[in-house]
Design brief:
By secondary structure, the chain is an alpha+beta fold. The chain is about 30% helix and about 20% strand.
Length: about 475
Protein backbone atom coordinates (compact mmCIF):
# COMPACT_ATOMS: atom_id res chain seq x y z
CA UNK A 1 0.00 0.00 0.00
CA UNK A 2 1.35 3.44 -0.91
CA UNK A 3 2.30 5.76 1.94
CA UNK A 4 -0.32 8.36 2.71
CA UNK A 5 0.75 11.93 1.89
CA UNK A 6 1.09 14.31 4.82
CA UNK A 7 -1.60 16.95 5.23
CA UNK A 8 0.30 20.24 4.70
CA UNK A 9 -1.44 21.79 7.69
CA UNK A 10 0.34 19.28 9.96
CA UNK A 11 3.58 21.09 9.14
CA UNK A 12 2.22 24.09 11.05
CA UNK A 13 1.58 22.27 14.33
CA UNK A 14 4.71 23.48 16.15
CA UNK A 15 5.02 26.87 14.47
CA UNK A 16 6.05 29.91 16.52
CA UNK A 17 3.75 32.84 15.79
CA UNK A 18 6.42 35.51 15.56
CA UNK A 19 8.76 36.79 12.83
CA UNK A 20 11.73 34.50 12.30
CA UNK A 21 14.07 37.46 11.83
CA UNK A 22 13.16 39.08 15.15
CA UNK A 23 13.43 35.79 17.06
CA UNK A 24 17.15 36.33 17.49
CA UNK A 25 19.31 36.43 20.64
CA UNK A 26 21.30 39.27 19.08
CA UNK A 27 18.33 41.63 19.24
CA UNK A 28 19.60 44.84 20.85
CA UNK A 29 18.25 46.43 23.99
CA UNK A 30 15.76 49.21 23.45
CA UNK A 31 16.84 52.80 23.89
CA UNK A 32 15.06 54.75 26.64
CA UNK A 33 11.88 56.66 25.89
CA UNK A 34 11.96 60.44 25.67
CA UNK A 35 10.99 62.13 28.94
CA UNK A 36 10.82 65.92 28.77
CA UNK A 37 11.53 68.17 25.82
CA UNK A 38 14.25 67.82 23.16
CA UNK A 39 15.72 70.28 20.69
CA UNK A 40 17.56 69.39 17.48
CA UNK A 41 18.29 70.40 13.91
CA UNK A 42 16.57 67.38 12.35
CA UNK A 43 13.86 65.20 13.84
CA UNK A 44 13.30 61.82 12.21
CA UNK A 45 9.96 60.14 12.94
CA UNK A 46 10.06 56.37 12.52
CA UNK A 47 12.73 53.79 13.28
CA UNK A 48 12.38 51.62 10.20
CA UNK A 49 14.65 51.71 7.17
CA UNK A 50 13.38 55.11 5.97
CA UNK A 51 14.05 56.79 9.28
CA UNK A 52 17.32 55.02 10.05
CA UNK A 53 18.85 55.71 6.62
CA UNK A 54 17.71 59.34 6.87
CA UNK A 55 19.34 59.80 10.27
CA UNK A 56 22.53 58.02 9.22
CA UNK A 57 22.90 59.86 5.91
CA UNK A 58 22.13 63.20 7.56
CA UNK A 59 25.01 62.71 10.00
CA UNK A 60 27.34 61.58 7.22
CA UNK A 61 26.47 64.68 5.18
CA UNK A 62 26.98 66.99 8.17
CA UNK A 63 28.49 65.43 11.34
CA UNK A 64 27.69 68.60 13.30
CA UNK A 65 23.96 68.34 12.65
CA UNK A 66 21.99 67.42 15.76
CA UNK A 67 19.68 64.55 14.80
CA UNK A 68 16.97 62.99 16.97
CA UNK A 69 15.00 59.88 15.97
CA UNK A 70 11.80 58.79 17.71
CA UNK A 71 10.19 55.37 17.28
CA UNK A 72 6.83 54.28 18.70
CA UNK A 73 8.03 50.74 19.49
CA UNK A 74 11.60 49.55 18.77
CA UNK A 75 13.70 50.15 15.68
CA UNK A 76 12.99 47.54 13.02
CA UNK A 77 10.01 45.98 14.79
CA UNK A 78 7.52 46.50 11.94
CA UNK A 79 7.90 46.00 8.16
CA UNK A 80 11.64 46.68 8.27
CA UNK A 81 12.23 43.71 10.56
CA UNK A 82 9.80 41.18 9.20
CA UNK A 83 9.98 41.43 5.38
CA UNK A 84 11.44 38.85 2.99
CA UNK A 85 14.90 40.41 2.87
CA UNK A 86 14.90 41.12 -0.89
CA UNK A 87 17.07 44.23 -1.37
CA UNK A 88 16.44 45.38 -4.96
CA UNK A 89 18.07 48.04 -7.07
CA UNK A 90 14.71 48.92 -8.62
CA UNK A 91 13.22 52.20 -7.44
CA UNK A 92 10.04 51.69 -9.47
CA UNK A 93 8.78 48.34 -8.14
CA UNK A 94 10.22 46.54 -11.15
CA UNK A 95 11.10 47.48 -14.70
CA UNK A 96 7.58 46.83 -15.99
CA UNK A 97 6.04 49.37 -13.64
CA UNK A 98 8.81 51.83 -14.43
CA UNK A 99 8.31 51.45 -18.19
CA UNK A 100 4.57 51.97 -17.82
CA UNK A 101 4.89 55.15 -15.73
CA UNK A 102 8.23 56.86 -16.50
CA UNK A 103 9.56 55.41 -19.77
CA UNK A 104 11.68 58.45 -20.57
CA UNK A 105 13.32 58.45 -17.15
CA UNK A 106 13.82 54.72 -16.80
CA UNK A 107 17.52 54.62 -17.84
CA UNK A 108 18.28 57.29 -15.23
CA UNK A 109 16.10 55.59 -12.62
CA UNK A 110 17.87 52.29 -13.25
CA UNK A 111 21.30 53.92 -12.94
CA UNK A 112 20.33 55.68 -9.72
CA UNK A 113 18.85 52.44 -8.39
CA UNK A 114 22.01 50.45 -9.03
CA UNK A 115 24.11 53.24 -7.52
CA UNK A 116 21.83 53.09 -4.48
CA UNK A 117 22.29 49.32 -4.13
CA UNK A 118 26.06 49.79 -4.42
CA UNK A 119 25.77 52.52 -1.80
CA UNK A 120 23.99 50.14 0.57
CA UNK A 121 26.73 47.54 0.17
CA UNK A 122 29.39 50.22 0.74
CA UNK A 123 27.62 51.51 3.87
CA UNK A 124 27.43 48.00 5.30
CA UNK A 125 31.20 47.65 4.92
CA UNK A 126 31.91 51.15 6.22
CA UNK A 127 29.86 50.68 9.38
CA UNK A 128 30.64 47.00 9.95
CA UNK A 129 27.00 45.89 9.58
CA UNK A 130 26.73 42.11 9.25
CA UNK A 131 23.27 41.35 7.88
CA UNK A 132 24.01 38.23 5.76
CA UNK A 133 24.17 40.39 2.60
CA UNK A 134 24.42 38.16 -0.51
CA UNK A 135 24.24 39.67 -4.00
CA UNK A 136 22.60 36.63 -5.53
CA UNK A 137 20.07 38.20 -7.88
CA UNK A 138 16.45 37.16 -8.20
CA UNK A 139 14.61 34.86 -10.61
CA UNK A 140 11.06 35.67 -11.65
CA UNK A 141 9.37 32.34 -12.38
CA UNK A 142 6.64 31.30 -14.79
CA UNK A 143 4.28 28.66 -13.43
CA UNK A 144 1.65 28.96 -16.19
CA UNK A 145 2.12 28.80 -19.98
CA UNK A 146 1.10 32.41 -20.64
CA UNK A 147 3.73 33.59 -18.15
CA UNK A 148 6.47 31.87 -20.16
CA UNK A 149 5.63 34.03 -23.16
CA UNK A 150 5.44 37.14 -20.98
CA UNK A 151 8.88 36.51 -19.46
CA UNK A 152 10.43 35.82 -22.86
CA UNK A 153 8.95 39.05 -24.24
CA UNK A 154 10.20 40.95 -21.19
CA UNK A 155 13.71 39.57 -21.68
CA UNK A 156 13.68 40.65 -25.33
CA UNK A 157 12.37 44.12 -24.46
CA UNK A 158 15.03 44.61 -21.78
CA UNK A 159 17.76 43.58 -24.21
CA UNK A 160 16.45 45.98 -26.86
CA UNK A 161 16.51 48.82 -24.33
CA UNK A 162 20.08 48.02 -23.31
CA UNK A 163 19.31 46.84 -19.79
CA UNK A 164 21.85 44.12 -19.16
CA UNK A 165 22.17 41.60 -16.38
CA UNK A 166 18.96 39.69 -17.23
CA UNK A 167 18.93 36.11 -18.50
CA UNK A 168 15.95 34.10 -19.74
CA UNK A 169 15.95 30.52 -18.45
CA UNK A 170 13.92 27.81 -20.14
CA UNK A 171 12.39 25.02 -18.10
CA UNK A 172 15.49 22.84 -17.99
CA UNK A 173 17.86 25.72 -17.27
CA UNK A 174 15.61 26.97 -14.48
CA UNK A 175 15.19 23.56 -12.87
CA UNK A 176 18.95 23.13 -12.97
CA UNK A 177 19.10 26.19 -10.69
CA UNK A 178 16.12 25.36 -8.44
CA UNK A 179 14.05 22.24 -8.97
CA UNK A 180 10.27 22.32 -8.80
CA UNK A 181 7.75 20.50 -11.01
CA UNK A 182 5.74 23.73 -11.15
CA UNK A 183 8.55 25.78 -12.77
CA UNK A 184 8.22 26.38 -16.53
CA UNK A 185 10.69 29.23 -17.19
CA UNK A 186 12.41 32.10 -15.45
CA UNK A 187 13.96 35.53 -15.89
CA UNK A 188 17.09 35.93 -13.77
CA UNK A 189 18.02 39.45 -12.72
CA UNK A 190 21.63 38.61 -11.97
CA UNK A 191 22.94 41.88 -10.55
CA UNK A 192 20.00 43.93 -9.33
CA UNK A 193 18.94 42.14 -6.12
CA UNK A 194 20.67 41.07 -2.92
CA UNK A 195 19.40 38.86 -0.12
CA UNK A 196 19.86 39.96 3.49
CA UNK A 197 18.65 39.51 7.07
CA UNK A 198 16.20 42.43 7.40
CA UNK A 199 16.22 42.75 11.19
CA UNK A 200 20.02 42.66 11.36
CA UNK A 201 20.10 45.45 8.80
CA UNK A 202 17.77 47.59 10.95
CA UNK A 203 19.73 46.80 14.12
CA UNK A 204 23.02 47.55 12.38
CA UNK A 205 21.74 50.88 11.10
CA UNK A 206 20.54 51.73 14.61
CA UNK A 207 23.99 51.00 16.04
CA UNK A 208 25.69 53.04 13.31
CA UNK A 209 23.37 55.98 14.00
CA UNK A 210 24.13 55.89 17.72
CA UNK A 211 27.86 55.74 17.03
CA UNK A 212 27.59 58.87 14.87
CA UNK A 213 25.75 60.74 17.62
CA UNK A 214 22.09 60.36 16.64
CA UNK A 215 19.91 60.51 19.75
CA UNK A 216 17.38 57.68 19.48
CA UNK A 217 14.29 57.42 21.69
CA UNK A 218 12.26 54.22 21.43
CA UNK A 219 8.76 53.59 22.80
CA UNK A 220 8.19 57.25 21.91
CA UNK A 221 5.31 57.74 19.44
CA UNK A 222 4.80 61.12 17.85
CA UNK A 223 1.15 62.15 18.07
CA UNK A 224 0.94 65.67 16.70
CA UNK A 225 3.03 67.74 14.28
CA UNK A 226 2.79 71.52 14.21
CA UNK A 227 4.73 74.50 12.88
CA UNK A 228 6.45 76.55 15.53
CA UNK A 229 8.51 79.70 15.02
CA UNK A 230 11.15 78.81 12.41
CA UNK A 231 10.72 75.08 12.86
CA UNK A 232 8.32 72.33 13.85
CA UNK A 233 7.27 70.56 17.03
CA UNK A 234 6.13 66.98 17.57
CA UNK A 235 4.28 65.95 20.70
CA UNK A 236 5.24 62.70 22.47
CA UNK A 237 3.68 61.03 25.54
CA UNK A 238 6.08 62.70 28.01
CA UNK A 239 7.27 65.78 26.18
CA UNK A 240 7.86 67.44 22.84
CA UNK A 241 10.61 67.59 20.24
CA UNK A 242 11.41 70.99 18.74
CA UNK A 243 13.34 70.86 15.48
CA UNK A 244 14.29 73.09 12.59
CA UNK A 245 13.25 70.32 10.19
CA UNK A 246 11.61 66.90 10.28
CA UNK A 247 11.65 63.80 8.07
CA UNK A 248 8.74 61.35 8.25
CA UNK A 249 9.30 57.63 7.69
CA UNK A 250 6.05 56.25 9.07
CA UNK A 251 5.38 53.61 6.39
CA UNK A 252 1.87 52.12 6.70
CA UNK A 253 1.01 53.97 9.89
CA UNK A 254 -1.11 57.17 9.77
CA UNK A 255 1.05 60.07 8.63
CA UNK A 256 1.47 63.09 10.87
CA UNK A 257 0.65 65.08 7.71
CA UNK A 258 -3.03 64.19 7.52
CA UNK A 259 -3.53 65.15 3.87
CA UNK A 260 -1.23 62.25 2.90
CA UNK A 261 -3.39 59.55 4.47
CA UNK A 262 -5.67 58.99 1.43
CA UNK A 263 -2.61 58.08 -0.65
CA UNK A 264 -1.79 55.01 1.47
CA UNK A 265 -3.68 51.74 1.91
CA UNK A 266 -2.14 49.60 4.67
CA UNK A 267 -2.34 45.95 3.67
CA UNK A 268 -1.27 42.76 5.42
CA UNK A 269 1.30 40.33 4.02
CA UNK A 270 2.16 36.93 5.55
CA UNK A 271 5.10 34.52 5.52
CA UNK A 272 6.36 31.18 6.81
CA UNK A 273 9.84 29.81 7.40
CA UNK A 274 10.73 26.15 7.46
CA UNK A 275 13.04 24.45 9.89
CA UNK A 276 16.65 24.35 8.58
CA UNK A 277 16.95 21.97 5.64
CA UNK A 278 19.30 19.02 5.89
CA UNK A 279 22.01 18.58 3.25
CA UNK A 280 19.89 15.90 1.61
CA UNK A 281 16.79 18.09 1.52
CA UNK A 282 18.73 21.02 0.12
CA UNK A 283 20.31 18.78 -2.54
CA UNK A 284 16.82 17.65 -3.58
CA UNK A 285 15.95 21.27 -4.37
CA UNK A 286 19.30 22.45 -5.73
CA UNK A 287 19.43 26.21 -5.18
CA UNK A 288 23.23 26.23 -4.96
CA UNK A 289 23.42 29.91 -5.96
CA UNK A 290 20.82 30.97 -3.39
CA UNK A 291 18.89 33.38 -5.62
CA UNK A 292 15.75 35.07 -4.43
CA UNK A 293 12.68 33.69 -6.20
CA UNK A 294 9.20 34.95 -6.98
CA UNK A 295 6.51 33.68 -9.31
CA UNK A 296 4.80 35.74 -11.99
CA UNK A 297 1.14 35.53 -11.02
CA UNK A 298 -0.86 38.53 -9.87
CA UNK A 299 -1.16 36.74 -6.53
CA UNK A 300 2.48 35.77 -6.26
CA UNK A 301 4.78 34.01 -3.83
CA UNK A 302 8.25 35.20 -2.87
CA UNK A 303 10.76 32.76 -1.43
CA UNK A 304 14.42 32.55 -0.53
CA UNK A 305 16.98 30.73 1.59
CA UNK A 306 18.10 32.12 4.93
CA UNK A 307 21.71 31.94 6.11
CA UNK A 308 20.93 28.75 8.07
CA UNK A 309 19.19 27.16 5.04
CA UNK A 310 15.56 27.62 5.98
CA UNK A 311 13.15 28.47 3.18
CA UNK A 312 11.17 31.64 3.72
CA UNK A 313 7.89 31.33 1.81
CA UNK A 314 5.57 34.34 1.73
CA UNK A 315 3.06 36.36 -0.23
CA UNK A 316 0.02 35.30 -2.28
CA UNK A 317 -2.73 36.67 -0.03
CA UNK A 318 -2.79 40.38 0.67
CA UNK A 319 -5.41 41.47 3.18
CA UNK A 320 -6.96 44.91 3.51
CA UNK A 321 -9.18 45.78 6.47
CA UNK A 322 -12.04 48.25 6.20
CA UNK A 323 -10.96 51.79 6.98
CA UNK A 324 -7.28 50.91 6.67
CA UNK A 325 -7.16 49.79 10.29
CA UNK A 326 -3.88 48.50 11.73
CA UNK A 327 -4.25 46.19 14.70
CA UNK A 328 -1.96 43.66 16.37
CA UNK A 329 -4.58 40.92 16.00
CA UNK A 330 -4.33 41.26 12.21
CA UNK A 331 -0.67 40.18 12.32
CA UNK A 332 -1.74 36.52 12.13
CA UNK A 333 -4.11 34.94 9.63
CA UNK A 334 -4.43 31.15 10.00
CA UNK A 335 -6.32 30.74 6.71
CA UNK A 336 -3.39 32.32 4.87
CA UNK A 337 -0.86 30.19 6.76
CA UNK A 338 -2.77 27.08 5.69
CA UNK A 339 -2.91 28.27 2.08
CA UNK A 340 0.83 29.06 2.08
CA UNK A 341 1.65 25.62 3.49
CA UNK A 342 -0.43 23.91 0.80
CA UNK A 343 1.23 25.94 -1.94
CA UNK A 344 4.70 25.26 -0.53
CA UNK A 345 4.39 21.50 -0.78
CA UNK A 346 2.83 21.80 -4.23
CA UNK A 347 5.95 23.70 -5.29
CA UNK A 348 8.42 21.43 -3.48
CA UNK A 349 6.83 17.98 -3.09
CA UNK A 350 10.31 16.52 -2.53
CA UNK A 351 10.34 18.31 0.85
CA UNK A 352 7.35 16.46 2.29
CA UNK A 353 7.87 16.08 6.02
CA UNK A 354 9.58 19.46 6.47
CA UNK A 355 7.94 21.54 9.19
CA UNK A 356 7.43 25.27 9.54
CA UNK A 357 9.22 26.95 12.43
CA UNK A 358 7.75 30.48 12.24
CA UNK A 359 4.65 32.18 10.84
CA UNK A 360 3.93 35.90 10.90
CA UNK A 361 2.45 38.86 9.10
CA UNK A 362 2.15 42.60 9.30
CA UNK A 363 1.14 45.79 7.56
CA UNK A 364 2.94 47.33 4.62
CA UNK A 365 2.17 50.61 2.86
CA UNK A 366 0.88 50.45 -0.68
CA UNK A 367 -0.05 53.28 -3.01
CA UNK A 368 -1.81 53.35 -6.35
CA UNK A 369 1.39 53.48 -8.41
CA UNK A 370 3.15 50.72 -6.38
CA UNK A 371 6.32 52.76 -5.81
CA UNK A 372 7.33 55.48 -3.40
CA UNK A 373 6.25 59.10 -3.59
CA UNK A 374 7.86 62.10 -1.94
CA UNK A 375 7.23 65.68 -0.96
CA UNK A 376 7.34 68.41 1.65
CA UNK A 377 4.91 70.07 4.05
CA UNK A 378 4.90 72.87 6.62
CA UNK A 379 6.61 75.34 4.30
CA UNK A 380 9.35 72.93 3.27
CA UNK A 381 10.40 72.17 6.84
CA UNK A 382 8.98 68.63 6.74
CA UNK A 383 9.79 65.97 4.14
CA UNK A 384 8.23 62.55 3.63
CA UNK A 385 8.67 59.33 1.63
CA UNK A 386 5.83 56.80 1.49
CA UNK A 387 4.29 54.04 -0.58
CA UNK A 388 7.10 51.54 -1.20
CA UNK A 389 4.54 48.72 -1.59
CA UNK A 390 6.75 45.96 -0.23
CA UNK A 391 9.90 46.92 -2.15
CA UNK A 392 11.42 49.34 0.32
CA UNK A 393 14.40 47.37 1.63
CA UNK A 394 16.64 48.98 -0.98
CA UNK A 395 14.58 51.93 -2.20
CA UNK A 396 14.17 53.38 1.31
CA UNK A 397 17.81 54.51 1.29
CA UNK A 398 17.16 56.39 -1.95
CA UNK A 399 14.03 57.86 -0.33
CA UNK A 400 16.10 59.03 2.62
CA UNK A 401 18.43 60.92 0.29
CA UNK A 402 15.44 62.45 -1.53
CA UNK A 403 14.05 63.71 1.79
CA UNK A 404 17.41 65.21 2.76
CA UNK A 405 17.75 66.88 -0.66
CA UNK A 406 14.25 68.34 -0.36
CA UNK A 407 14.92 69.67 3.14
CA UNK A 408 18.15 71.24 1.92
CA UNK A 409 16.33 72.88 -0.98
CA UNK A 410 18.81 71.33 -3.38
CA UNK A 411 18.19 70.60 -7.07
CA UNK A 412 19.72 67.19 -7.65
CA UNK A 413 19.26 64.34 -10.12
CA UNK A 414 16.92 62.86 -7.54
CA UNK A 415 14.73 65.91 -6.93
CA UNK A 416 14.43 66.66 -10.67
CA UNK A 417 12.91 63.23 -11.40
CA UNK A 418 9.28 63.21 -12.54
CA UNK A 419 8.89 60.26 -10.17
CA UNK A 420 9.86 62.56 -7.28
CA UNK A 421 7.92 65.60 -8.48
CA UNK A 422 4.64 63.73 -9.12
CA UNK A 423 2.13 62.04 -6.85
CA UNK A 424 0.07 58.87 -7.29
CA UNK A 425 -3.69 59.08 -7.39
CA UNK A 426 -5.20 58.89 -3.90
CA UNK A 427 -7.42 55.98 -2.99
CA UNK A 428 -11.13 56.84 -2.76
CA UNK A 429 -12.82 57.12 0.65
CA UNK A 430 -14.71 54.26 2.28
CA UNK A 431 -16.78 52.34 1.45
CA UNK A 432 -15.68 52.81 -2.18
CA UNK A 433 -12.09 52.00 -1.25
CA UNK A 434 -12.93 48.59 0.22
CA UNK A 435 -15.29 47.73 -2.63
CA UNK A 436 -12.69 48.73 -5.22
CA UNK A 437 -9.91 46.76 -3.53
CA UNK A 438 -12.17 43.73 -3.23
CA UNK A 439 -13.17 43.91 -6.90
CA UNK A 440 -9.53 44.34 -7.93
CA UNK A 441 -8.46 41.34 -5.87
CA UNK A 442 -11.20 39.21 -7.41
CA UNK A 443 -10.26 40.41 -10.89
CA UNK A 444 -6.58 39.58 -10.38
CA UNK A 445 -7.53 36.08 -9.26
CA UNK A 446 -9.67 35.66 -12.36
CA UNK A 447 -6.78 36.86 -14.55
CA UNK A 448 -4.47 34.27 -13.00
CA UNK A 449 -7.06 31.59 -13.76
CA UNK A 450 -7.69 32.76 -17.33
CA UNK A 451 -4.30 32.92 -18.97
CA UNK A 452 -3.49 36.40 -17.69
CA UNK A 453 -6.42 38.03 -19.49
CA UNK A 454 -7.40 41.22 -17.68
CA UNK A 455 -11.09 42.04 -17.39
CA UNK A 456 -12.70 45.40 -18.04
CA UNK A 457 -12.21 46.51 -14.44
CA UNK A 458 -8.45 45.92 -14.49
CA UNK A 459 -8.15 47.54 -17.92
CA UNK A 460 -9.99 50.60 -16.60
CA UNK A 461 -7.68 50.76 -13.57
CA UNK A 462 -4.68 50.51 -15.91
CA UNK A 463 -5.94 53.43 -18.00
CA UNK A 464 -6.36 55.80 -15.06
CA UNK A 465 -3.19 54.67 -13.31
CA UNK A 466 -5.02 53.47 -10.20
CA UNK A 467 -4.11 49.98 -9.07
CA UNK A 468 -3.71 47.64 -6.15
CA UNK A 469 -0.65 45.42 -6.18
CA UNK A 470 -0.69 41.95 -4.71
Amino acid sequence: MAARAMNPVQALSDTHLRPYWLDDPGRPEACPALVGDEHCDLLVVGGGYSGLWTALNAKERDPSREVVLIESEECGWAASGRNGGFCAASLTHGLGNGLARWPGELPLLERLGHENLDGIESALRRHGIDCDFERTGEIEIATAPHQVLELRETAEELASLGFGGHEFLDRDALRAEVDSPTFLAGLWNRTGVAMLHPAKLAWGLKRACLELGVRIYEHTPGSELSSRDAGVAVRTPYGRVFARQAALGTNAFPSLVKRLRPYIAPVYDYALTTEPLTEEQLAAVGWRRRQGLSDSANHFHYFRLTADNRILWGGYDIVYHYGGEIRAEYDHHPATYQKLAEHFFRCFPQLEGVRFSHAWGGAIDTCSRFSAFFGTAHGGRVAYALGYTGLGVGASRFGADVMLDLLAGERTERTELEMVRSKPLPFPPEPVRSMGIGLTQWSMTRADENGGRRNLWLKAMDRVGLGFDS
